[in-house]
Design brief:
With 288 residues, the chain is of the alpha/beta class. The chain has helices at 6-18, 21-28, 32-46, 62-84, 100-117, 130-138, 196-208, 221-229, 239-244, 258-261, 276-287; strands at residues 51-54, 57-60, 92-98, 121-127, 144-148, 156-170, 187-191, 214-218, 235-238, 252-255, 262-270. The protein folds into three domains: 6-74, Winged helix-like DNA-binding domain superfamily/Winged helix DNA-binding domain (Arc Repressor Mutant, subunit A, Orthogonal Bundle); 92-161 and 264-287, 3-Layer(aba) Sandwich (D-Maltodextrin-Binding Protein, domain 2); 164-263, D-Maltodextrin-Binding Protein, domain 2 (3-Layer(aba) Sandwich), CATH 3.40.190.10. The longest helix has 23 residues, at 62-84.
Length: 288
């Protein structure tokens, strides 16, 4: 079998990410027929079917999933080799994942500084829960991630970068938070499962004997605060988020017990990942 063409693998990966040939063609600025031909050529070369068509979409076959795992690693190694043999100045695409709170409060100044120093780096910043980000990191979808502790994977290196204070917030209409047991039966406003802050909240509720009336899952801190302000329920959020928005008079704010009140944000990257882009970012973070 002939060696695999990295360009063909990049096309294959783009079809997977975009969910189809037409979107991949737009992403890569190619005609659809060219994308379809390259995928068919790749399948013939491998002697394997990579996609199954379901309605208007494409689904990876088991062989397709296997190839994708190798594709991510091969493209990453190609990028790292190119960087290592260059003059050492960071450049290229830098795919960063982050929890929304860190992206909103902690990263703007740092990434602005990074852009000023290394304008040839194109940063692609995506937000998600800590759990989802770790999966994406391990799947080679992103190069690094800013996630909450703890992280316990042998394949992942971490570096503490920020520390957040978590506080309980509730609307003024709720009973006084001086007796937190009174919020039993009230709705919890939280991110979906996989959010580290939600995990801390659930552990605190369990230890405190507080039984919520239900959980409303949302997808942003601003939505969390809006729902709490409207009287829907209570939540746990980083103090830094409250400091960023005008919240005076809109909430009751209550400190959590110490073991639930402090949580570190970690910079995480795969142990097999090395790049001047990461080195430059770690240097900026250490100086901040």
């Amino acid at each position: 079998m002939n060696s695999l063409d990295l360009k063909a693998l990049e096309i294959f990966r783009t079809v997977v990410i975009e969910g189809g040939v037409s979107k991949a063609a737009v992403k890569l600025n190619r005609v659809q027929s060219n994308i379809s031909t390259r995928i068919k050529q790749l399948e013939r070369q491998l002697g394997k079917k990579l996609f199954l068509r379901q309605g208007r979409g494409l689904t990876l076959t088991p062989d397709g999933h296997l190839l994708l795992s190798y594709t991510e690693r091969l493209l990453q190694l190609s990028m790292e080799a190119s960087e290592a043999l260059s003059e050492g100045k960071p450049k290229g695409i830098f795919r960063i994942g982050s929890m929304e709170s860190a992206a909103a409060v902690r990263l703007p100044e740092i990434l602005s500084r990074y852009h000023q120093l290394y304008p040839e780096v194109k940063i692609e910043l995506e937000t998600d829960t800590a759990g989802a980000l770790m999966k994406r990191l391990l799947n080679y979808d992103i190069e690094i991630a800013f996630v909450a502790e703890p992280v316990s994977f042998d394949a992942i290196n971490t570096q503490p970068v920020f520390e957040e204070k978590l506080v309980l917030v509730a609307p003024p209409s709720f009973p006084s938070l001086e007796k937190t047991s009174k919020i039993s039966g009230k709705t919890v406003i939280a991110f979906k499962t996989g959010c580290a802050y939600r995990r801390y909240l659930e552990e605190w509720l369990l230890e405190s004997g507080i039984v919520p009336g239900g959980i409303m899952a949302v997808d942003s801190n601003l939505t969390v605060l809006a729902c709490v302000s409207a009287g829907t329920g209570f939540a746990v959020v980083p103090q830094s988020i409250l400091d960023m928005v005008a919240t005076k008079g809109q909430f009751q704010i209550h400190s959590l017990p110490k073991k639930f009140a402090q949580i570190k944000t970690l910079l995480a990257w795969r142990t097999d990942y090395q790049s001047t882009k990461l080195d430059a970012l770690r240097e900026i973070l250490s100086a901040s």
